[in-house]
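**User:**
If convenient, please work through this fold.
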Amino acid sequence: MHFFPHQHCQIKNPLITMGTFDGVHLGHTKLLKELVRRAKAANNQAVVISYFHHPLETIFKDTFPYLLTETKIREKLLNELGIDCLLYLKFTPAMAQMPPEDFLKEVIYDELHPQEIVVGYDTHFGKDRLGDYNFLKQREDKYDYKVDIIEPYRSNGKIVSSSWCRECVRAGAVETLAGLLGRPYSLTGIIRSGNRIGHQLGFPTVNIFWNDPNKLIPKTGIYLSKVTLNNRSLWGVTNIGYRPTVIDMSELTVETHILDFNEEIYGQNITITFESRLRSEYKLHDRKELKAYIANDIKKARELIAKKEEK
């Protein structure tokens, strides 16, 4: 396939949808579940057309922190929803200038010959985003497919969107965010060695080097978190920030004190999920005051854990 160089699927009788699906939030889940339901009912394949990274990277030729869901996590979530095939579109500057008619014919029709296309309320494609549901509807007979639109998912009357999810990440509103995603927000990465200041304070931490430079990191502050490490689930307290009391670094760091844990785990993969925000990051007077704050953070964390485990 010319437009899908990374595809490994044998596609037959596809029902398709397309989009970035960053976050795989509850709005995405609603659409994807409907796609899978229809595909199974017709004994066809549920196919998603997406991108390795957001098209904005191609358009602006830059990397910037926007990504809600790393590629491997997104693939796992789509697989769990029952998607049969995920096709990564080779999005190039030339494709960004492709009129929607050319995109529909050359990318969708010539490559896939879909029997049905299922789109969300905000699906757009082609130059200037001129392709949408109405555009597809007007061309059903010409390209021999059926198109349907899935109404948006709403929370408290507001449409759940990736933009809203990003607002929550930037605000540190991780509990609200979990309600939009249908799961806690997570960060995956590798444990790297640090300057061991946490050890000196009596609260050793692991420093996380996140896998994707485009990953959107929550607002600076202290969070109750869950840690997934070698298929184990542990509780932790995560600090996101610049450590102004001890170093005042210009580089953002993510470090987690894993509760009741004392093992050497440098170089291992780790996933942090953010459960609750405990407080903001402060510049304190000295390490003694910092140590007292950390002890209080851990006390608050244990109280929250006890409440969560009672449920």
Summary: The longest strand covers residues 269-279. The radius of gyration is 22 Å.
